[in-house]
Amino acid sequence: MGERLRNWAGNIEFGAARVHRPRSVKQVQEVVAGAERVRALGTGHSFNTIADTPADLVSVAGLPADIRIDADARTVSVAGGVRYGELARRLDAEGYALHNLGSLPHISVAGAVATGTHGSGVGLGNLATAISAVDIVSGGGELVSLRRGDADFDGAVVALGALGLVVRVALDIQPAYRVSQHVYERLPRAELDAHWEEIASAGYSVSLFTGWHGDTVDQVWIKRRDEDAPAPAPAELFGAVPAGGKRHPIAVMSAEHCTEQGGAPGPWHERLPHFKLEFTPSSGEELQTEYFVARADAVAAFAAVEQVRDVVVPALQISEIRTIAADRLWLSPHYERDSVALHFTWVPNDDLALRAVDALEEVLAPFAPRPHWGKVFRNAPGYPRGGDFAALAARLDPAGTFRNAFVERHVFGA
Ligand SMILES: Cc1cc2nc3c(=O)[nH]c(=O)nc-3n(C[C@H](O)[C@H](O)[C@H](O)COP(=O)(O)OP(=O)(O)OC[C@H]3O[C@@H](n4cnc5c(N)ncnc54)[C@H](O)[C@@H]3O)c2cc1C
Hints:
This protein is of the alpha+beta class. It folds into two domains: 68-176, 2-Layer Sandwich (Uridine Diphospho-n-acetylenolpyruvylglucosamine Reductase, domain 3), CATH 3.30.465; 178-371, Alpha-Beta Plaits (2-Layer Sandwich), CATH 3.30.70.2520. 21% of the residues lie in helices and 24% in strands. The protein contains ten helices and 19 strands. It has helices at 25-33, 84-93, 109-114, 189-194, 196-200, 298-307, 309-315, 350-364, 386-396, 405-410, and strands at 18-20, 38-41, 56-59, 68-70, 75-79, 96-97, 131-137, 143-147, 165-172, 174-175, 178-188, 205-210, 216-225, 241-242, 266-267, 287-294, 316-324, 339-346, 370-371. Strands 11, 12, 13, 14, 15, 16, 17, 18 and 19 form a nine-stranded antiparallel β-sheet that branches. A hairpin with a 5-residue loop joins β7 (131-137) and β8 (143-147). α7 (309-315) packs antiparallel against α8 (350-364). The longest helix has 15 residues, at 350-364. The two termini are 29 Å apart. It binds flavin-adenine dinucleotide (FAD).
């Protein structure tokens, strides 16, 4: 029996017979050339079996980070296994920034973009939209490089590990900027419906936290870029009031884990994530689910969730509502759709969480929900470019080396 690994949440034990940690691209190629079935493992922050395999699991975290900034092209290239926190610190030190980050800096770049991981912001695409080039060790161990503008590129970024092992990526960068974060509390529920678009657009990045339990939304986190925030933050936000101190989205957790609030400006990478790199993000004892629907359907979707509050609330620690701009990446949950994200942090209880998932998938069905690929869900819809993705996979990986049960079921429709 080989090494036994679990994901971050501990709910999945990977079934891999062998775990590999190559230290060079050449070693990655050798592992792939000698294996029948391979899956990539990033930092293991997904909540389902997306990275699992009974055969060979490969972490590329051991490849040298080799962070290279191209000031003229406004890009940075980096090894795929590098975590956002490490990349962000280096970029900021050199005077550069990314357009956005997820709620936590702990995740690997290749693993995050493979699932379409996102932050928030009506004008901001998910993290995968910043990728401008990928180097993939694909079928037979061949190294394939694709750049933005190449015919297949839009299929190769949110690829769920199904095209091969991403050993290197390039990302768009911009000059470093500063962000201040304000937290408001007790947004009247009716105001959310009446002013949804204004609230979602009240900052560079806006997150709402709710327990779906009553007449108010618990917290609204507004992240403003310095240049967008010449005036002081409003004293009130549609009836929500500034928090009287630092807050964690889950009231019982220590706010020490969270990035600075209260309007103190700081570097972009110390404000865009909700959680600090050196602390456990979120609750730590949890499962997560997230559905994306059109931003224009947000208010109706909130009402739909409230219809199944009786099943959702017993399973829930907290919900987060965010927005993501539409993109052109074939398997992105935000493909050609400006989206609202309805996120649920569950208690770590499979039965309770799955009951809530079933109820949510039923009531959200009229909005054609797309699940987060890395979280707990039952059904994923077909994607408009799903056929093109299958054709691309067949070309790059004719032997199906990078398939597992998860992608067979949810992507290739087996
Ligand atoms: C506490 C917490 C907070 C979270 N917050 C957010 C959030 O704010 N926004 C959001 O959208 N999601 C969030 N997530 C989900 C998380 O971002 C995704 O699950 C993400 O894919 C995890 O990245 P990872 O490096 O851990 O990848 P893994 O979970 O290890 O793998 C995910 C997928 O990527 C593939 N993969 C990994 N590395 C490579 C590689 N080198 N080449 C090819 N494929 C690869 C794997 O095969 C698998 O298919 C959160 C998760 C946790 C635990």
